[in-house]
Amino acid sequence: MNFIEQIIEEDIQNGKNDAKVHTRFPPEPNGYLHIGHAKSICLNFGMAKKYGGLTNLRFDDTNPVKEDTEYVDSIREDIKWLGFQWAEEHYASDYFDQLYMWAEQLIQEGLAYVDDQTQEEISKGRGVPTAPGVESPYRNRTVEENLDLFRRMRAGEFPDGSKVLRAKIDMASPNMHFRDPIMYRILHAHHHRTGDKWCIYPMYDYAHGQSDSIEGITHSICTLEFEVHRPLYDWFCEALRIHHPQQIEFARLNMTYTIMSKRKLLQLVKENYVNGWDDPRMPTICGLRRRGYTPASLRNFAETVGVAKRDNIIDVSLLEFCVREDLNKTAIRTMAVLDPVKLIIDNYPEDQEEEMIAVNNPEDPEAGTRTVPFAKELWIERADFRENADKKFYRLSIDREVRLKYAYIIKCTHIVKDDAGNITEIHCTYDPMTKSGMPESNRKVKATIHWASVKHAKKAHIRLFDRLFSVPDPDNCEEGQTFLDHLNPNSLVEQDGWIEPTLTLEKAMEIKHFQFERLGYFYADPDSTEDMLVFNKTVSLKQ
Questions:
Q1: Catalytic residue among 230, 262, 289, 537
Q2: What is the helix (H) or strand (E) element at residue 78, kind and residue range?
Q3: What pTM does this model have?
């Protein structure tokens, strides 16, 4: 049991909130969700589900300059794809009228005032944590003057940045967030939902707790950076005498070879270092989905990582382990050759063709079998042959035997090279009594390799993805460097390969997840066409 579960169970036992649990996931629609958000989604929805409660989806749309319906739609899609369904959908903008009324209430009670200082003057006046701040010269305006100015702010009489509404709390507080925080700023900007109705917008610290309160949220679960904001969250609820949810903080997800900053992810997209938000190298949920990660693998990852009270860094190999474990049980097997060299079986009849029986998934007997065409000329992986092999290399070499998966044992006799010394053909013989399933097939050889029939195989485009960054901590930069200096130049390699001929566009897009035997797990990309299937490498096989 983690510490959040302990808090919730104690509240239930004490009858707090009528023993109900109501959580929420409150993203700002200013970008695409990433793996860190996936952890928060799993936690908020998971806690409510475990205790028979509800979870709301609420969009924190208080900054119209950065927000867009594109992000709203993507967030909805990501949550549903992860396997969760919210009880109610809300927006902070739903509460703009109520938040404004509460702001006037605080003014009337002498707890808020209009400040004419610039942002720089306000920041300077707050001082430092070890010394008190300086009160604004406008801090002691009368209630009547403050109400008049605030109403004129709403009416649009003042330009952007000319005035703000601040809470009147304590300029000597050691918590900088208590030093008269800004509640409203003037922003003449079109809002994606309210249009031009408003030209003043609430700050996150003012809107968030009250939105939780309005919705009857019982446990406001958020990441650790909001711990210092909690006293202010509590202050607004208490000052307004409204329902007071409990804010609980947990450590955000930090992962090696990854960045989680929305600003930096946006920079990668805008400056074309990646091919959009859903680039399979991105840590976004849509990027992971396009790479071939499954909802179950991300949920399992979030559960395995657990909930901590202090920040730590998770190795990305744990995420790779989770998807590998899930795909091992579900992905359909197929054979593909990505770096081909031709293999010719000299003693195999010229016009003979066979259908070899292959297992679709050895972890799932109900997945059944398939047939793979076999003929005299095959493609094999170039790395599966070595001309001068040492004793530690068990695959194909001259005068050495290997088994062709689902087929025969072969023995290499000689090779053919071009003028540059590159191997163009590997010649071998086969033993017709060693076909898989025949009595002689039990003869042991040290290696089994995969293949594709030259005559029958289909060409496919393969995208081999590696980690986007070449160092574990891309944000740890030397002087003069940025995270961009740590981009991995080999994070994407594209090439054509050969796959089994039965993989049609319809079948590939229906199945989607495949294990290319001996190579790794791959995902059929939406860019696929009837003429050319496209596959993204999800993760390598366990070594």
A1: 262
A2: helix 69-82
A3: 0.92
